[in-house]
Amino acid sequence: MSDETATVAQPSAATTPAARVFGEGPIDSEFAIETTGLTKRLGHTAVVDGLDLVVPSGSVYGFLGPNGSGKTTTIRMLLGLIWPSGGSYRVLGKAMPAANASVLPHVGALVEGPAFYPWLTGRQNLKRLDAAGPDGQRRTRRARIDAALAKVGLRAAATKRYRAYSLGMKQRLGLAAALLRPRSLLVLDEPTNGMDPQGTREIRNLVRELAAEGSTVFLSTHLLSEVEQLCTHVGIISVGKLVAQGSIEELRGSGDSMLRVETEDAADAAQVLERMGLESIIVTGEIVSAQLDGQRPEECNRALVLAGVGVRSLTTDRRSLEDAFVALTGEGFDVAH
Amino acid sequence: MWLTELGLLFRRVRTRVLLFVLAAVPVAVAVAVRLSGEGPSPGQGPRFFDQITNNGVFAALVGLTVTLPFFLPLAVAIVAGDSVAGEANLGTLRYVLSRPVGRTRLLVLKATTVTVFCFVATFAVAIAGLIAGSILFPIGDVTTLSGDTLSLAAGTLRIGLAAILVAVSLLGLAAIGLFISTLTDAPVGAMAGTVGVAVLSGVLNAVPSLSWLHPFLLTHYWLSFGDVLRSPVYWNQILLNLLIQAVTVVIFAVAAWSRFTTKDVLA
């Protein structure tokens, strides 16, 4: 999926204001999700341990962590499925779980994979879910179901029984359920699970489209690439604790770019760079790399040339999120690609 | 919502098979009696059995008598045990609850659906019996257990009353099944547990040295529905049965509610 570009998709004609007139308007608040010391103990272990999440409204927030780090447990609390053992949380500005009934209609969710009744068709399943709760006006139901199915590319399979769906189709139906009504907040737990590369690309475009329409997207994932491509903000969770949180730029650390010089006089180059005050200088064969630490690459180049170092190539690398992650947590990460 | 919930149950192949099997029981009995040529001698076989050849409508009562000890409780245990645990097992519970549907509301919906199923299942037996009986045998005035006769219309009404009492007899078990269903995410376990309760009650009811316990057992007065075929109707045991069912329903409905509204949904 490395060939994907991170352009923001334009909202398509099918998803313009007309689709937004149903139900109450979205709830406005500065933060879509705010948790304070949120804790969940199961047995003696704290699965989620003092979590302080801040998800700004309108952001695409990547909730990043390895499997088993407490992501899904956090999401279950946000959706009122399990009760916290400690701490408090607000969703769309309202204290939860007290406001479950008024807030959750504005939240679309895909939690721990899709789940539907195998003996009903895709359309019947969506109909049942829509009819089950508040704000599911019958008058508009058919149109809303059609629109949701179209958005996830599932119209052709709408009358097939769920039992016969492939993994990717099931995932799409799960997303369609989250999109049945306009949502202020979308909580998507591993939305591209089980999708082929084409499906993954479609889903990521859909997420961008939804964000462009103004929904806040809380995207739980263990894929760094997904966060790099989609998210404006990121929170990293490890063993139930939040180890870092902020905008992608903050996390990457804009001043921490790397300089990479290819030269036959590697040892001399390293000395020049060291005199200039660059740090973490590493020489590997004919490659010298170092942290720029505020120095401008063109200054480095001039200094190298003046010192008589034959520079074959000189490039700068922005620190990748993965580097940032490793630096923050001091541990590896199960990167899938 | 009520309709979609019912649709969910009755669109399911398993539910239809259960109803089909239940309806087949009185039909099979009626066909067997018809094929054997002469009817059973008086007092032979299950209650009302010897009456079928005289009057086909009795096939409905024989059907109820035959299915009440095992087939009907089994069907109710399957549907009640599956009600919450089945949704947990499929994972649909988390989506329904975060829709959001209040937990009390969902439990009331499930209880209503199971109640409707108790009535549908019982009437499937009774109606299939009436139809098969009236096709295979002559029908006419209904002779009661007390010896006097009722018109066909009055007799059929009494049979309808009997069916209602049978359906109500199942509600206690249904409430137990609903409660067990909130305890687990494994529907098969909940079904087996519910069947187990019915079987245990039946076994205890058959142990003579436990006769002091018998009047308190869930299934003890189950066959009291036959008393509507006396004239006048003998209400004593019927009312005791209704009392036992009402107490059981209240206890287990409260237990199911307190469990389900506080439980962590991890499935």
How would you classify the helix and strand content of chain B by structural class? Answer: mainly alpha
Mean of residue pLDDT of chain B?
A: 94
List SSEs of chain B in N-to-C order.
Answer: HHHHHHEEHHHH
Largest interface pair? A-B, 32 and 23 residues
Characterise the protein shown here.
The complex is a heterodimer of chains A (337) and B (267). By secondary structure, chain A is an alpha/beta fold. Chain A is 32% helix and 26% strand. In chain A, the strands form 3 sheets. Chain A has a 6-stranded mixed beta sheet with strand order 7-8-9-4-10-11, sandwiched between helices. In chain A, strands 1, 2, 3, 5 and 6 form a 5-stranded antiparallel beta sheet that branches. In chain A, helix 3 packs across helix 4 (138-151) and helix 4 (138-151) crosses helix 5. The longest helix of chain A has 16 residues, at 197-212. The model of chain A is unreliable at 1-25 and 333-337 (pLDDT under 50). Chain B has 267 residues and is an all-alpha fold. Chain B is 66% helix and 1% strand. Chain B contains 10 helices and 2 strands, in the order H-H-H-H-H-H-E-E-H-H-H-H. Chain B has a two-stranded antiparallel ribbon. In chain B, a hairpin with a 5-residue loop joins strand 1 and strand 2. In chain B, helix 1 (2-10) packs across helix 6 (103-136) and helix 2 (13-35) packs across helix 3. The two termini of chain B are 23 Å apart. The model of chain B has no long low-confidence stretch (mean pLDDT 94). The chains are: A alpha/beta (337), B mainly alpha (267).
